[in-house]
Each structure stands twice: as structure tokens, then as C-alpha cells.
Amino acid sequence: MSKTNDKVIAIFCSDIHLSLTPPVWRSAEPDWLEAQKRPLLELQQLKDKYNCPIFCAGDVFDKWNSPAELINFALEYLPDMYAIPGQHDLPLHNLNDIKKSAFWTLIKAGKIIHNKSETDKIIVGPPIRIEAFSYGIKIEPIKKEESDKRILICLAHQYVWIKGYSYPNVPKENVLYNLQKQLKGYEIAVFGDNHKHFYTSMENTQVWNCGALIRRKSDEKDYRPCVGLLTAGGHIKIHYLDISQDKHLTNYDNINSKEDIDIDGFIKNLENLGDTALNFVDAVKRYFEDKKTNKEIMNIIFKAMEN
What we know:
The protein is of the alpha/beta class. The chain has helices spanning 32-50, 68-77, 102-108, 263-271, 280-291, 295-306; strands at 8-13, 54-56, 81-83, 112-113, 121-123, 128-133, 151-157, 188-192, 198-202, 205-209, 226-231, 236-240.
């Protein structure tokens, strides 16, 4: 591949799931905002290095009604990007109510560029043309004109999977093969929603499923987040993010404890906390520390809370 064709012209990511408080498994982080800042800064560094746009395939926030503190954090540290909303970005997963969301606040502030037309097309410039399909919008095939030299890309927030890259008992109708007709005409299809990244091809379409940008759950302990770097030659290069500073709860799996758990005492202790500023996870952790609880029992509770 020539140096010209190897030039990075776009960055693809998805499923950032910004949240003000950490998910249970990542509650070992001393500062959750700082932990989320690390991958965002790395994403910004890539954007600066290659001087190219970022495209996010949905779920910037973990909750559509994120608090002002988190929105302010996103305004400061989330790189400027093109993005479509995922279901977590939308009130009751309803695209019609997008103007009620934190995602819309970022659009109004100019942090996120989102084409609000009916077709959701995002035409960036001569190298690429993107047809964007927000959560709940059906992907439509496209016909490429012979005179159009741009790389035609489908950007969608839709759960698709291939063997080995899905959650257990995933619905068969979500298998990637079922989108074969809808993806006709696209040279590249970029997906969000499935938190396990994969890169494959189907007929004449390359498929890049971005995966999660930030690890949040214990079943992601062996997962390495990444982003896709699109080259001028029309191929995706994988860039893995640095997770060396990530902190999470340990001894969290393979739990097999026969000890009884004093649930009544546990609940009573939580009730006695009253109107403290602690969130639920912090309250649970404090209870465990006070009672010097067995680690296996702690893990059973944390696992249940995570689910």
C-alpha cells in the first residue's frame, strides 16, 4: 500500500457510555471522571495526529438525562466529533424526543455535529460520504454513481453480531448476514451497540463493529477497547487504547460460596445511612468494610448489582 493510500482520513468509535458515577466493576477507580478522561484524551491525540474527523456510532452517554456536571465534563474533554444517537442517548429510546437529551445539548453547543435532516446523511468532503442511521432507523441500500469517487460508508447504531462476538443467546435475527441486502452499495459499514469489536467483510462491504470505548462490566475484563482508523485506500486499521491505568474490582468471577449472607442486616444497615451523600454502591462498599465481609460474599453482591 502506498503512503498516500495508507493515510488516515477518519476515526471510528462508539459506545462511550459516559456516566457521572462508575459502574460497579469499575468502582475501584479513585476518580471515575479522571478514568474516563484517559481514553477521551487518547482519542483527541489521534484526531490531532492524523488531522481527521471522528465519527461515533452512538451511545455517547450512558443515560439520556445525564446531569450538568457530566455534560460539562463532556464539553471539556470529549473531542469534537460527528455522532449519531444510540438508544442510551434517547429518552425511552425514542428518536423523536432527542431534543430532551444531553446528547442534544452537545449538538447545540457544537461539540457534536449531527445532521438533523430526514435522511441523516453526513457528507464530509471529497474522500468519504456517510449515510447515517441513528438507533431505530432502518438501514437503506445505496447505489453508487460511476462518477462518485468517494468511499461510501454506512454509520449505524444497530446490534449486529458474528460467531464469537455477541452476548449469550443473542437473537438470531441480529446476525450480520441478515443485513446483506441493506448494506448493498456500501464499501464500509460501521456499527455501534455491540460492545465486542470485530472487523470482517460480507460480499463487497467491509464491516467494522467499533465495540465499547471504555470497559464497564466484569465480562469485559479481558477486553481491550479500540478505535478504527480509516485509510485513504479504504481499509480499517485497528488502534488499541491504553488500559494500563484501569482499575476495577478483583476476584470478581468464579464465585462459589456456601456461606450465608445476612441480607436483613445488610438492608437495615443501608437504611440507617439516612440522607447521606453516598450513592448506593459506596454505601454497599462501606457496609462491607465495616463488617469485614468475606470477599466471595462481596463478589456475589457486586455481581448481582452489576446485572
